[in-house]
Write a structure and sequence with these properties.
By secondary structure, the protein is of the alpha/beta class. Helices cover 34% and strands 22% of the residues. The longest helix has 20 residues.
């Protein structure tokens, strides 16, 4: 059911029956290492290119998800996912090993919640019984495409963020046990004219605020409805900007209730500058740490707003600004419903 202008309310409340999360060596030293199902010791993952390693991350996350659900891959009706690399090549190649019909989606680092929203929509309206969804990023592959190869050793400003090497996948079903997806607000493209690819948080913050405001307006609720409101990867810079904008717009959110995946995943002292980013950031933190907290009864309702900067190497080279987007998904503890 459409509520308001752009929020879907899922009457049947599709269930996230299992998840899988995979990380790299940097994530293995982070704060959330215990919430990954699999961690790798090197960035190559036994492959001869970072892009091939990127593909392996998503494959492993998907098969770990299916293994935990005790579901054979031929039961999956659709795979919905994406990444940041040229035409989502790693995700596309990875889905061949699953064999299910595939919907590739791109919202940059907001891909995880776009894919989850679409998965819930399909299941809620009886378009599928099982949908596998997720998003992935690889530090070295992404840095090579959007900024400089890590081997170059170029210095970055304090506003820059560290792209995570991680993948998060979830299996969405019409029935079963687990956290339930109750609504989703689809974002609009917001472009404030920024052009600096090393300040993604500043560029994405207005898009996050725009979607958060739309969600509460469409749903006719206030921030107290949720135990936690968490953005995808605004990191320090973007989170502070978004808090200021929300306050100016009359939607003040308590500081402890408003967190960011890009600030949770790494430990203090890891050289991540403003924080983390990447399509795998919100995916791995949500499908690992956040849902684990829900299953433990620590959280009843959360709103995840994944944020994405929709630039490309081509648009940057042609001097274009950075259009951004944010998609929000509300998830509730199944035991509370």
């Amino acid at each position: 059911m459409l509520k308001g202008h752009r929020t879907w309310v899922f009457d049947h409340k599709p269930v996230i029956i299992s998840t899988g999360t995979v990380g790299g060596p940097f994530e293995a030293n982070g704060k959330l290492a215990d919430h990954f199902d699999l961690l790798h010791e090197d960035l190559w993952l036994g492959e001869d290119s970072y892009e091939k390693a990127h593909k392996i991350l998503f494959e492993e996350a998907c098969f770990k998800t299916l293994e935990k659900a005790h579901l054979p891959k031929d039961k999956v009706q659709f795979v919905i996912g994406g990444d940041l690399i040229n035409q989502m090549t790693p995700t596309t190649f990875a889905t061949q090993s699953i064999g299910a019909p595939y919907l590739g989606v791109f919202s940059a680092c907001a891909t995880s919640m776009e894919a989850l929203a679409l998965s819930a929509f399909l299941v809620n309206y009886q378009g599928a019984n099982y949908v596998l969804t997720g998003a992935t990023s690889h530090n070295s592959a992404v840095e090579k495409q959007f900024r400089y190869p890590t081997e170059y050793g170029g210095q970055k400003p304090p506003t820059a963020q560290w792209t995570v090497t991680a993948s998060g996948a979830a299996l969405v079903s019409k029935e079963g046990k687990g956290p339930r997806i109750t609504s989703a607000t689809i974002g609009r493209v917001v472009d404030m004219g920024l052009t600096d690819p090393f300040n993604m948080g500043g560029a994405m913050a207005p898009a996050a605020v725009e979607t958060i405001e739309a969600h509460f307006q469409d749903m006719n609720i206030n921030p107290d409805h949720y135990d936690l409101i968490i953005t995808g990867d605004l990191a320090h810079i973007g989170r502070e900007i978004s808090l200021d904008l929300l306050k100016k717009h009359g939607l003040a959110i308590e500081d402890h209730k408003y967190q960011d995946c890009g600030l949770l995943i790494y430990r203090e002292g890891q050289p991540v500058l403003a924080g983390a980013s990447g399509a795998g950031c919100s995916a791995s933190v949500t499908y690992g740490y956040l849902l684990n907290r829900m299953k433990a009864g620590e959280l009843k309702r959360i709103l995840v707003i994944a944020t994405g900067a929709l630039l490309s190497p081509l648009s940057f080279q042609q001097g274009e600004t950075i259009p951004c987007i944010a998609h929000a998904v509300a998830i509730e503890n199944g035991d509370e419903m």
